[in-house]
Every structure is written in structure tokens, then in C-alpha cells.
Amino acid sequence: MRAVVTGGAGFIGSHLVDRLLADGARVTVVDTLSHAGESNLAAALRSGSCALVRHDVAAPGLDEVFAEAAPEAVFHLAAQIDVRVSVTDPVLDAGSNVVGTVATLEAARKAGAGKVVFASSVAVYGPPETLPVTEDAPVNPLSPYATSKLAGELYLRQYHQLHGMDLTALAFTNTYGPRQDPHGEAGVVAIFADALLAGEPTRVYGDGGNVRDYVYVADVVEALMAAASRSGDGRRLNIGTGQPTTDLQLHRLVAEAAGSAAEPEFAPARLGDLREMVLDASAAREALGWQPRTSLAEGVKLTVDAFRAAR
Ligand SMILES: NC(=O)c1ccc[n+]([C@@H]2O[C@H](COP(=O)([O-])OP(=O)(O)OC[C@H]3O[C@@H](n4cnc5c(N)ncnc54)[C@H](O)[C@@H]3O)[C@@H](O)[C@H]2O)c1
After folding, report:
1. How far is the CA of 262 from the centre of ligand 1 (A)?
2. Which residues are designated catalytic?
3. Domains of the chain (ranges, CATH numbers)
4. Which of 5, 104, 229, 268 sees the fewest Cβ atoms within 10 Å?
5. Is the CB of 147 under 6 A from ligand 1?
6. Could you report the per-residue pLDDT of 241-298, keeping only the tens digit for each?
7. Start-to-end CA span in the chain (Å)
8. What is the DSSP string of 23-42?
């Protein structure tokens, strides 16, 4: 298979690239390297089957990049992922995430790509009315970032209606694993792992009882692979475990894996943080035959081991 992975130098994208290469695919990564360095792709680039094109998906010239790559499948993961940046600079966010998504769809259409899989987010839902959240729950994006992801989903639906393209949006819940940036505002497993291994303090916002759904990156990659091999009409499928985990439970698991007995500091709850969010992924199980395979304890251990090895 020939594939284009936008955002392929990033956390999830680079794991997807490795998985595609293991499958014998030829991969073109389109990435600005604005958030991730080339290092995530070190092994991939050595393989000889992966090309890195340093290009902004929202910039002119994307059609030519896609024409050259002639992809059968496009995985669109490139995005500005920082919610706070989306609030302070919504124009920048919409440039990457809205214009960039339309440009990717357009380039994929012109290049005759058979499939586009789009990385959407749990953030499109906002505060849940019932848990776990299914795809027919109301959407209520609370940030420009979440709005940009919802806009991307709507464009997918439109491209299916207008052009009959085969498209799938996957809404990932909190994804974690090796290579996640520990210096961002999200990625709490990476943040805890990095700090605990360094013997530095960790911080929990609120009372530690906020609940999230953590899915391991290898499971997310399998969902992307499964989506690429099934047809879709642009609709969203949830990718999560359905398992609720509090911030304190997560902290304990990471500390245990890091061999640390440290307790977190508590800071005031952050405005806009949801109390609870857990996704129901039954639709993905039915449509893609996908289900998460990695337990949180196992995934946290793999992540902490990788962070330790990279120190
Ligand atoms: N990590 C999560 O928990 C999570 C949850 C839900 C959705 N997602 C989505 O999954 C995708 C991948 O997320 P990630 O955690 O790997 O983030 P990441 O920041 O590690 O990867 C994104 C990559 O996109 C690149 N990029 C950013 N803007 C670009 C642009 N305009 N043109 C080309 N490249 C650009 C960055 O350099 C980076 O390498 C994103 O679309 C994100 O919104 C992630």
C-alpha cells in the first residue's frame, strides 16, 4: 500500500508510520516538524520505504506533494493540538486544523486516494449528559481546538456526499504511550512519567477525582489501520476503552511503574476541565472489528519503560 500520513512525525503518527512500514507499505510523511522532531522517524527513515516531506498541510503546494506520493490511503493526523494555544490564537489553530483539513481532503481527492482517515477527538462532545458517551450524543465543543475537529468531521461528511469519497473520522479519547510530548498541556501519562522518573514534583488539578478514558497508542494505531481497510461515509467512530480512571488512580499506576512513592501536589481545578469523560466504542467494534487490547497497567508500564530508556 502507498500511504500519506500527515502529522506522521508526531506521537501517534510516528507509531502509525512504523506499523505501516512493518506491513510493507510505502509511506510519505507530511509534517512541519513544528511539534515533533525527526527523531520519532529515525528508524522509519532508515528503512528506505519512508519519505519525509516538510510541508504545512495548509500551505500551497500540497496537491503536488500528494500527486507525487500517489497514495491509496491518507491518514490525516497533522494538527495544532494545544487547547490553550487554540484559545489564545484561534486563527493559527483554524489555519492548521480547518484549512489544513480541507486542503488535505482536496489534495487526496485530486490524487485519487481511495481512503482518508481523519484523527478527530473526544473533545467534540464537551460535557457529557450520560456515560459512556456514544456517537449519537450531542456535540458541544468548548474550545477552538474542539470546534476545529468538529469542522473537520463536517467536511468529511460533505466530501462523502459531494464526491462519494471513502472517509472515516476516528474520535480518539486520551491517547498515551512512548514518544508522547511530556512538555505539553495534555498527555498526562507522559507528564507524570517524565517528572516521576526525574524525581520532580507532579501536580493534580482539583481533588484528583476527575475521570478520563486512557487508550494506548498501539491500540489507536490498530484502529487507524482497521479504518483504512473498511469503507466509511465520513461519520465519526469513538476510539476509547470505556474504562474510567481517576487522576489519582493514574498517578498511582505511573508512580508504581516508575518505582516512585511520590504523591502529587494538588492545585486548584482548571476552568473548563470536564469532571468525567469516558467513550463507548461499541460502534468501532461493530464497524471495524476493533477493540482495545492493552490494559492501562500494561500500557503505563510500556510507556514508563520507554521514557526510562530514552533518558
Ligand atoms: N494525543 C491524544 O490524546 C489525541 C486525542 C484526540 C485526538 N488526537 C489527534 O490525533 C492527531 C495526532 O496527535 P498527537 O498527539 O500525535 O500530536 P502531535 O503534536 O505529536 O502530532 C501532530 C503532528 O502534526 C504536525 N503538524 C502540526 N501542524 C501541522 C501542519 N499545519 N502541517 C503539517 N504538520 C503539522 C506536528 O509537527 C506533529 O508532528 C492530532 O490530529 C490530534 O488532534 C490526539
Report:
1. 31
2. 145
3. 2-175+214-240 (3.40.50.720), 177-211+244-277+300-310 (3.90.25.10)
4. 268
5. no
6. 999 999 999 999 999 999 999 999 999 998 888 999 999 999 999 999 999 999 999 9
7. 35
8. TT-EEEEEE--SSS-GGGGH
Residue 222 amino acid letter? E
Phi, psi (rounded to 5 degrees) for 243: -95, 120
Q: Which of 276, 237, 275, 272 is nearest to 132 (CA)?
A: 276
This prediction's pTM:
0.98
Q: How buried is 81 (Cβ within 10 angstroms: 0-12 exposed, 13-18 middle, 19+ buried)?
A: buried
**Minimal-distance CA residue to ligand 1 atom 11:** 77
Burial 155-165 (b: 16+ CB within 10 A, else e): bbeebbeeeeb
Q: For residue range 71-87, list pLDDT tens digits in order.
A: 999 999 999 999 999 99
Grouping H, G, I as helix, E, B as strand and the rest as coil, residue 271 is: coil
